[in-house]
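seq as requested:
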Amino acid sequence: MPLVAAENLAKSYGRVKAVDGLSLSLDDSSVTGLIGPNGAGKTTTIKMILGLLKPDRGQVRVFGEDPWDNSSIRTRVGVVYEKAFFPSHYKTMDYLEKTCRIFGVPESRANEVLRMVELQDAGDRAIKALSAGMLQKFAIAHALVHSPSLIVADEMTANLDPQARSSLLDLVLKLHKDEKATFLLSSHILPELSRVCDSVAIISQGKVWASGKLTELYDKYAAGTIRISTDKPEELAVEIRKLPYVEKVDSDIRGLSIRIRSGNEDRLYEDAPGLARKVDARIQGIETGSASLEELYRMAVGGSRGG
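struct tokens:
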């Protein structure tokens, strides 16, 4: 049985449909990414999973139970928000020991979780003196106090600089490996999730367009995809789109992702250099079956819409 199972969830705010027919499942001991742009419905979905919002339609089960107004569920879940708010005058160790007493666990657990998040030397530091990255690590320590079965993190890296984001993601990997922690991570910053997630749910306009193991999704959506790195992606894209066996071309500042009909890989390898010379572009590399998580997102959403 999955840790989290949502089926046909819907939630509206007035006339705005935040979530519309969303279904997903989350397995034990996984790191699952809920990915999509701002406004896709990620936070509303998470609030329904946590029992903070009641769905207008559909059902969600966490550990096999309805999370709505269910205190027993909340004792088994740890939560990390985009912006962590704690009483700033407390010292980190004092506040975690207070949290231990609330959950009825030994106060020694405070020191354990600080070590887990590599803040063992900050026990005497006031919360207000923590950097943004340290504060999010502290938020994870706070979420771990009661040894939850599931940790839910909503855009926890959104306000951090690249170095702090990288450090926090390294911590997620470490906790998953060492503590067998299960994570549900939401983010609109897709490259970072590909580092830590083994599964994803791709969400747009309040719906899940594709979900599953990353390897399976890449096999499904990136098969027949060729990536060309070039210094003139837009110019080369115009020529590549004219080839009869090319189904779709997406370009970015680094190059092109090209969907082709099966069996035509060799033809593209032969045609691309000539087309590049035509537009005075330099090809820096060609890879088969290569796609970033952003490209996977576009393929899944575009393919499901028939576009």
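The chain is about 35% helix and 25% strand.
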